[in-house]
Amino acid sequence: MSRIIAQEKTIRLNPAIVLVAICAAITFTGFQSAHASSSTKKEGMVWIPAGHFTMGGVGQHARPDEYPRHEVEISGFWMDETEVTNKQFSAFVQATGYITTAEKKVDWETLKKDLSADTEKPDEDSLGPGSLIFQKPQTLERDMHYSKWWHWQKGACWSQPEGPGSSIEGREDYPVVHVSYFDALEYCKWANKRLPTEAEWEYAARGGLSDKEYCWGNVPIDASRANTWQGTFPVTNLKSDGYESTAPARSFPRNGYGLYNMPGNVWEWCSDNYKHTAYKERLEANSEKTTLKDPSGPKNSSDPRHPFAKV
């Protein structure tokens, strides 16, 4: 899921819509508001001190949408030290009776608004409850499309991560997966917390280091530092880190702020809408400023890879 930032504290939720063998979940992180104080310890959370950093891509693996880099000032906040776990999310569901997105039948009338007009309606069976799970292809092909390793699994959801017959028993301390953005927001309301902005999340993830490729510096990632894919993706996972899929939320060394698994393990939700030109537009709209304070994302979302999807 992801970590979340509470109104008075910050937590990390894992809004995982899918179960991946590499980043097995999406998580959301919680954090405290700008008026938060570091004076009172929050259980299961760490204080992220106010400061400045250069936001954006560093190193050869950075993507075009992570540029241009820009200076950002962040207010202090509390954040969950781990991703939201199955145990925590289970408590939310038991207390509220909440039903996640993956557990509901797909509403075709809503879905087709985000698709091209000539898209045909799938059969009813394909519109039933379910989610995407990662499946390793048998062979490696040139220019493989991600549809080769993402598989729609009927019945897959947070409590049945791999589909019917699977469960989270014995994985209570693993990050919850198959959680949508909307599920993450509902969890936040229940926990009296909120999702972090992208700027807050990146600032926290860097652990006090700016201009470094990783939260520990520029030393290349290895199996001792994070839960990532080792081997030839997506066909061979050597599991050198000890895990085929997700790892427990408290695995691997903490970063400089005391947060677990900021690199690797699961994808984490932020509150910002995605727009591939967001950084460029942000700087153009604030051309008179050298540093942006607590910036948030664009009002509307757009992605050239999914031209019909809007938020």
Task: Describe the protein in words.
The structure is a single chain. Strand 1 (2-6) and strand 2 form a beta hairpin. The two termini are 20 Å apart. The chain is 14% helix and 18% strand. It is built from 5 helices and 13 strands. The protein has one domain: paralog of FGE (formylglycine-generating enzyme) (Alpha-Beta Complex). It is globular, with a radius of gyration of 19 Å. The strands form 4 sheets. Strands 1, 2, 4, 11 and 12 form a 5-stranded mixed sheet that branches. Strands 3-9-10 form a 3-stranded mixed sheet, with no helix packed on it. With 311 residues, the chain is of the alpha/beta class.
CATH class: Alpha Beta
Number of domains: 1
Give the percentage of residues in beta strands. Answer: 15-25%
CATH architecture: Alpha-Beta Complex
Compute the separation of the termini in Å: 20 Å
Largest sheet: 5 strands, mixed
Shape descriptor? globular
Give me the count of strands: 13
Put simply, the count of helices is 5
Q: Tell me the radius of gyration.
A: 19 Å
